[in-house]
Design brief:
Farnesyl Diphosphate Synthase; mainly alpha; 199 residues
Length: 199
Amino acid sequence: MTLAASDLDAAFEACRRETAEWAKTFYLGTLLLPLEKRRAIWAIYVWCRRTDELMDSDEAQSRSVDELAERLDRWEEKTRELFSGHVSDDLDAVMLDTLQRFPQGIQPYLDMIEGQRMDLSWTRYPTFEDLKLYCYRVAGTVGLMTQGVMGVDEAYTSAPWSDCPDPSDAAVALGIANQLTNILRDVGEDRARGRIYLP
């Protein structure tokens, strides 16, 4: 499946609207980026949101563990196909366009799906190390997915004291910090779902 340029633009616009609706402050920050980077970040955001919704939507709450596991298996297969260049819908098309413009590996995407799988069997996190793994998978991965789009300021990397640092550790740490903030914000909601993340 190949989208015409106008259809691809419409698919990116749908990603923009979804980002603006569900991540208002984050969306405002993306407006500071050049258009090409903005669109890529919106596409990644929508892929992440849809991954999260497989487990956390109201509709998902009525599903059995086996049904949820099957949904995650299908999403993983669809993601693997996407990274192999197979496109089956508009979301795939915007993600493939993003991956072609900002090449990256599949592992952070698979790791995020593994984070969703943790919610199938983990309801308590006995240690911070256990929680940190979960936070890496569901949010630290976002830093890895987006760092190639965001980039590192050229003035910084060309400085005489710089060896063009790898921002991966900082990107992961920021994602983990964001997830810990989300956990603190959602303690009551998570408890109602039978999940207690705080060790």
